[in-house]
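Sanity check

After download, print the first record. It should look like this:
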Amino acid sequence: MSYRTYLCKIIEITFNRFPVVLNIASPSESIVRERKGRLLSRQGLMKIRTRALRKGVWFEALSRIERSIIDLTIRCVDQVHSNVLMKTVVAILDKLLETLEEDYLKRVERVGREIAEKICEIAWLWGNPQAWTWKYDLRFVKFLGTNAMNS
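Expected C-alpha cells:
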C-alpha cells in the first residue's frame, strides 16, 4: 500500500462508545465523521446534553463558552458539516463523555466498596482470616459494584 493510498483510507474506530469514521485526507488534517450522523446531528447532541443535565455534569464539566457552542449548534444546525465546528464539538463531547464515564466509575467503586466491606465482615465471622484483605482489592470492589449497578 502506498503512502497516498494510506492517507485516503477510511478508518473506523469507537469514540466513547459511539462508532466514528475517521477519513484521513492529509497528514495534518483528519476529518471526524460519525457513522449514520447520530453523534454530530441535532438529535445526537440533544441526547448527550439531556444525559449530562440529568447526571448533573453539564455545568460542572463544561465552561460557559463550551455549553454555548453546543446549544447554538443544536439550535442552528441539523448536521455538522464544517470541519472547524466538527473538531470543536468533538473536543467538547470528548470532555463531557469522559466526565460522564468518570462519574459512573466513582459510583461503581463506592457501591462496590460498601458491598465488599459487608462480605469481608461475614467471611471473617465464618472463620476466614484473609477476608479483611478482600476489601482492598480494587478489581474485586469494581466487580461487586458493576454487578450491583447492572442488576
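If your output differs, re-run the checksum step. Summary of this record's structure: Residues 105-150 form one domain.
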